[in-house]
Amino acid sequence: MVNHEVVNCEQVWREISNYIDGDVDATLHASMDEHFRTCKRCASVLAGTRNVVQLYGDERMLEVPAGFSRRLERRLAKNVVKGSGWSSWSAWLVPVAAVALFTGALALMDQFTFKHPAKSILAEPGHDIPPDMLVVVSDGSKVFHVAGCPFIHDKATERTITAKQAMQDGYVPCSRCLRQYLKTGLSEEPGGDDASAEAEEEQGEVLSTAGHLQKKPGAGLAARASIPDD
Amino acid sequence: MSEAKMALNNPGQAGGTREQDLILSVQRGQHELFYELVRPYERRVYAAALAILRNEQDAEDAVQEAMLKAFANIRQFRAEARFSTWLIQITVNEALMRRRRERTVPMEGIDGLRSGGGDEESDYAPRDFADWREIPSEALERKEVRQRLTEALATLDRKYREVFMLRDLEHLNIQETAEALGITVASVKTRLLRARLMLRDLLAAGWEQGWFSRLPFEKGTKPW
Q1: Which residue of A has its CA nearest to B191?
Q2: In which domain, by residue range, is B119 found?
Q3: ipTM of this predicted complex?
């Protein structure tokens, strides 16, 4: 037998909804049962509230306007089935679009990233430099100079070779003393020497479009390091 | 014939399994079966939308949009939830969003105080203690009774009407009702209590007048 405490009408009304839902503990349930046996008013409230729950919970209370089902079916048929066609197309259209976008992005990158440095003074250094021109190189940098250039590093190790040999060895022309041969590149490079060198450094390599400079890892860094600041 | 079609034509198959088959079929691309999937719940989702928007046309539009959203997200539905609850929650969200967006929903005709609502925190005391007997379910066959019940529900303050509708018409549990409306479980319980008691008071007059218990004449019979 479950113990119960005496509850008053107000307490019963407060819990009557939970009681109907079976959401009160056993003790309170027993107390309310006892109260309903003795209190006609609360028994009436309980019966009425149960009627409300029962009546509104009946499926027949859920009425829809005339033609509702037909309109819903049509709308779904129009959008869902039609949409499913689009959806099945989209099943392969999406990857195709993604590939196209990726390809386009690569093309743009190629244009701006790989071709752009080709316009730099270092990428087209040797068009006008006579191959048999004597230039000076040193161990201090990978830049070759004309004799007497004040920007020669490590003068103690300088030696004279042909421009062709210098370029074959991975040297790049000094943007100061050989500026005249790089005029085209300079005029097309508003960023100036440093900007170009930075671009080269970002790429980590120097690209040669004319074959005068060989692609060489670290050459860009060397070129940058060798370009003196103004 | 597809598995889902076979399931539809097999009345002996358990409803839950049939529904699961339909869900899987739609998720796998048999989109034309989507209406079959939602048809059993169209009345319930309409009632949910109507309780929030209080306008038949708006409610119907909301249901259609909600069903399209349900279709668009059908792949995200997981079997651990009840499909009906999932549909109702999408519909409630759609209706609540429309109500916020359009602000054309009529204001409450009768506020909480007039319908006995008052402060949610205070206790609600029943007003009528007429002796209600059990109302025969046949009473609902009469349009007049359904109309009276609908009108009584419409007079409730919005916050009580929505909770009552989701809990007692849609049969969501307390937790699901709280989640659908974005309120606490405690608020759901408080509002539900008040809604039930208020409706009881509102309908008591009908009980006393006897329109719950008047049964329609059977076809072919005469009352005299």
Answers
A1: A17
A2: 107-216
A3: 0.74
d(CA A80, CA A92): 18
The residue assigned the tokens 């006897």 is B210
Closest CA to B23 of B8, B4, B10, B43: B4
Q: Nearest residue of A to residue B46 by CA position?
A: A64
Any A CB within 8 A of B128 CB: yes
Coil, helix or strand at residue B70? helix
Distance of alpha carbon B142 from alpha carbon B130, whole angstroms: 23
- Separation of CA B143 from chain center: 18
Q: Which residues of B118-145 are buried (b: 16+ CB within 10 A; e: fewer)?
A: beeeeebebebbeebeebeeebbeeeeb
CA dist., res. A167 & res. A134, Å (int) = 12
Chain A residues inside the 8 Å CB shell of B69: none
For residue B100, the distance in angstroms to the closest alpha carbon of chain A comes to 24
- Chain B, 87-106: which have a CB under 8 Å from a chain A CB? none
| Burial track A195-213 (b if 16+ CB lie within 10 A, e otherwise) | ebbebbbebebbbbeeebb
Nearest to residue A20, comparing CAs of A49, A61, A57?
Answer: A49
From B49, B68, B102, give the residue that closes a domain. B102
Mean pLDDT per 10-residue segment, chain A (230 residues): 76 93 92 92 89 86 88 89 50 59 68 48 60 85 84 81 86 82 50 42 36 37 36
CA nearest to A157, candidates A172, A173, A144:
A144
Strands A172-173 and A143-144: parallel
Name the nearest CA neighbour of B195 among B134, B118, B137, B129. Answer: B118
Task: Determine the Cα–Cα distance for residues A138 and A151; give it in Å rounded to an integer.
Answer: 11
pLDDT in tens, B175-212: 999 998 999 999 999 999 999 999 988 887 766 666 55
Let me know if residue B1 belongs to a domain: no
Q: Which of B223, B160, B147, B157 is nearest to B195 (CA)?
A: B160
Every domain of chain A and the residues it spans: 9-61, 68-119, 134-226
Query: Is residue B8 one of the residues assigned to a domain?
Result: no
| Residue B130 and residue B162 in one domain | yes
